[in-house]
Specification:
By secondary structure, the protein is α/β, with parallel strands linked by helices. The protein is 38% helix and 14% strand. The protein is built from 15 helices and 14 strands. It binds pyridoxal-5'-phosphate.
């Protein structure tokens, strides 16, 4: 595909999208899939293998979306598929405990020692919602602090300044969320320790928790300033406020032990998702014993789920984590991501297109702005129209980037040096056209 100038055939995708729009709001089951922020129409995917996506029109793409993060081993990894098949033959759900849930909790606890107890749920959204409920139950306080541009799922009171999906659609807050629900959510700029210090000073007796992505991935990739996480840890501890790390993206991604291992900070509660389900629906939350013991049935904070700890999802997650533990995994991801970042940066420079790149391990965003990006305000200086043109120029050459400026490019262990080379070659052609 790469280097081929002819625009791809997309007849089947176009037809399916027209049909989908009659039956499904916007034609998609999650908004950012619809390509609204880059224009054009989404491609309907037929199958995927390794680093490649194959669409219904027979086009092939090198995939840097990876289902928005979970597919860190690439698509249809043989060990993961075998685990799912094996689990499926034993039944798909029991509504009773299994030994595999214990195994996954053990594995999560080993990687994230701060998660002394772990509860499995079915999505990241659900995990965050539940972690905040228990934080409120524990502190007996109502208000929470989140950072502008961080996304924590689509639950009512978290749809305030929530990054990519919303930013892309231009919905600052969502209709359908009563003001009464959102009024307990305070927002403040990412990486600004003075701002959060002021906020805490003013509201300390009402604050149950501060929640953040310790490496932000939903306004594009924004790493924490060197002192930001440690200052937050200190500030929250001093004021009896719980610190929640939403590591739904960063967990098992920036490091096996997530951002908390990378930066050496211990939160009170942690939320996981995406990778721990190996591409099946999963979320998890966990933390200190004294907090987690408040959850039903050991305590009064209610949280439940018919499909929680689903055997297929748990099997896929366990198989994924097992593969990730192989020696050299994160080094390979780092090497390939570094080469990709350098290649994209060089291509932009050669074409005279000003960009800023943020990268932590295998998470990368090329912002179409010359300025440093440290928070939502600086991220949103990016030229999103230009990104849209770049996105389509890459897509036409068989490179599937995120259909939004404010997302990460994800790498998998299945991406080869050759995939990276092809991508960089495509980028040279794409940047030249801007
Ligand atoms: C994706 C994501 C969520 C929500 O997870 P879902 O499984 O989509 O509900 C929460 N937090 C972060 C940081 C995420 O990236």
């Amino acid at each position: 595909m790469v280097g081929c100038a002819a625009v791809m055939k997309t007849t089947r995708s176009t037809k399916l999208f027209a049909e989908a729009q009659r039956l499904i709001p916007g034609g998609v089951n999650s908004p950012v899939r619809a390509f609204r922020s880059v224009g054009g129409q989404p491609r309907f995917i037929k199958r995927a293998k390794g680093a490649k996506l194959y669409d219904v029109d027979g086009n092939t793409y090198i995939d840097y979306v990876l289902s928005w993060g979970p597919m860190i081993l690439g698509h249809a990894h043989p060990a993961v598929i075998a685990a799912i098949k094996k689990a499926a033959t034993l039944g798909t759900s029991y509504g009773a405990p299994t030994e595999w849930e214990v195994a996954l909790a053990k594995e999560i606890h080993a990687a994230f020692p701060s998660m002394e107890k772990v509860r499995l749920v079915s999505s990241g959204t659900e995990a965050v919602m539940s972690a905040i409920r228990v934080a409120r139950g524990f502190t007996k306080r109502d208000s929470i602090v989140k950072f502008e541009g961080c996304y924590h799922g689509h639950s009512d009171y978290l749809l305030a300044k929530a990054g990519s999906g919303l930013a892309t659609l231009g919905i600052p807050d969502s209709p359908g969320v009563p003001e009464d629900f959102a009024k307990h959510t305070l927002t403040t700029p990412y990486n600004d320790i003075d701002a959060i210090r002021q906020l805490i000073k003013k509201h300390r007796n009402q604050l149950a928790c501060v929640i953040l992505e310790p490496v932000a991935g939903n306004m594009g990739v924004v790493p924490p300033h060197p002192d930001f996480l440690s200052a937050l840890r200190q500030l929250t501890a001093e004021n009896g406020i719980l610190l929640i790390f939403d590591e739904v993206i960063s967990g098992f991604r920036v490091n096996y032990g997530g951002a908390q291992a990378l930066y050496g900070i211990k939160p009170d509660l942690t939320v996981l998702g995406k990778i721990i389900g190996g591409g099946l629906p999963v979320g998890a939350y966990g933390g200190r014993n004294d907090i987690m013991d408040l959850i039903a049935p050991s305590g009064p904070v209610y949280q439940a789920g018919t499909l929680s700890g689903n055997p297929l999802a748990v099997a896929a997650g366990l198989a994924t984590l097992k593969q990730l533990k192989a020696r050299g995994t994160y080094k390979k991801l780092e090497t390939n991501a570094k080469a990709l970042a350098k290649g994209l940066g060089d291509a932009a420079k050669k074409a005279g297109v000003p960009v800023t790149q943020n990268r932590i391990g295998s998470l990368l965003t090329t912002f179409f702005t010359p300025s440093t990006v440290v928070d939502w305000n600086t991220a949103k200086q990016s030229d999103t129209k230009r990104y849209g043109r770049f996105f389509h120029a890459m897509l036409d050459q068989g490179v599937y980037l995120a259909p939004s400026q404010f997302e990460a490019a994800f790498l998998s262990t299945a991406h080869s040096a050759q995939d990276i080379e092809k991508t960089i070659k495509a980028a040279h052609a794409a940047f030249k056209k801007l």
